[in-house]
Amino acid sequence: MSSGAMLLIAVFGLLGFLVGLLTGMVPGLHLNNVVLILLAGQDALCAFAALIVSSALAADMALAMASFIVALAVTHSFITFIPSSFLGAPDEKTSLSVLPAHRMVLEGRGYEAVRLSAIGGLAGLLISLSLIGAVKMVMGEPLNLYSGAIQGSVAFILVAIVAMLVMDERPKGRGSEVVIKGIVVKGGTEPSISIDEAIAEGKGTARISGAVVKSSGEKELWLRGGTGEMRVVLEFGSMPDIGASITIMGKLGRRRSGRAWHWQRAKAMCAFLAAGALGAALLVPENAASLTCTFLPTGLVDSGAVILLPLFAGLFGLPTLITSIKGCARIPPQSTKKVKGMGNGGKLRSSVSGALAGCMTGWLPGVSSAAATVVSRGRKGKGSPESYIVAMSAVNAANVIFNLIALFVIGKARSGAMKAVSDVMYPNIEGWASVFSVPEALLALLAVALAAGALSFAALLIVGRRAAKLMPRIPYRVLALCAIGFIIAMVSVFSGTLGLAILPTATLVGFLPHRLGVKKAHLMGALIVPTILFFVL
After folding, report:
1. Which phi and psi (to 5°) does residue 211 adopt?
2. DSSP readout, 338-364?
3. Higher per-residue confidence, 477 vs 20
4. What burial class does residue 84 get, using C-beta atoms within 10 Å of its C-beta: 0-12 exposed, 13-18 middle, 19+ buried?
5. How far is CA 378 from the centre of its chain?
6. 254: left (phi over 0), alpha (psi -120 to 50) or beta
7. The dihedral sign for the CA sequence 125, 131, 132, 133
8. Considering only CA atoms, which of 444, 342, 359 is closest in space to residue 400?
């Protein structure tokens, strides 16, 4: 590779990083729309490259533009966490992490959430880079898992992922009750806590007092004290009389009925199918084409980037902003001090699981980072908000790396950014055949991704600290209303009449998880269902 080509790669990679800083701070801006603008200005970028290196070949310019796109994608995946956490207007990649991040912001720990996101993103990037050789051998030569098993089973794999997402739902609220399992005691020196406090705590050992209001069988009774009522399971001893005042000491836990589990999963499936029906209406090629002809002149609409902006702004951005306006007048003061929260071992485990989940999103079409994170955390979805944020950020960073590897190994673009890389480099993309002979272009793009990740790590900490200090000074409702207005303006500019028609419908569907009490990750049915239909029909 010539020194001129290396200079172009460095300059365009830095330019992509700077643009990613700007786009990542814009709430609700989809990366595919940024790439669409880039492709529209491709001639201007080529002219800029010619000014830097007058003797640059066409292949060098193409690689420089690809470097711009890769750096932009990596940086955007890091920086977009700031509006996701402080404003609550995520794209589809951060739809799962917004609730844990919001919870930490309300506790004054917004900068801690940003710091965890930066650590997860950088760790996910480094872990992914260390795995690319092994992944290449498994997916490509010599094992050829993708062409041998995955390619023909994509629809079945996606259905299995959907089943895991739905089964991961756990009942909340009315279908779940706090139970204390213990014995009736008399006297003692430990003070009792109220039933309301015990219900709020939900775990650990407690000592509570109240009046027996009803009983069931020989071992179960209901204790009422103040405004709370709790089910009691007696481990041994005789059943007290109805109306008797007792003190019980035991272990708190939660009990959920089978009916509550089934109802929660049914609600999750409703949200998934509603989003899937909307996505199928917009993204299945025949339907997308008919909508294009109806609202805008033929040829002016990209049925991918143009439709995705209003679709995801409606599903994820506006409902969260509108809902949060009602309950948050001002962001609480944020601490910017380093705290000893999540241990290094927990961060490493979450980063590894996130990187592996990012590998899944890199090879399977239609699987979002939010869905991949839920799947990666196992059947019971255990983990703290901190581990969710680390894992999600690792998924987002790893997704870019494995999207890039998939492009060079199987020749398929699994994201809008990689589709743009494929377009600008065509027909000069050299496939990665032998694990010991990595294409020069791929090495250059991986180096750009690593450099952009390192710069983004530092930038996220700096910008996140400033945001944590600035945001509490501004009324939240003003911020949220400005973000809503900006999203609507962007939809109008990028997607025109078609986007303004999609946005309110997508917003109504986006309210379903809020109303039904299920994860917003189920809204990724908007991508998964069209993908399943593509492979089945």
Report:
1. -105, 140
2. ----S-HHHHHHHHHHHHHHHHHHHHS
3. 20
4. buried
5. 16
6. beta
7. positive
8. 359
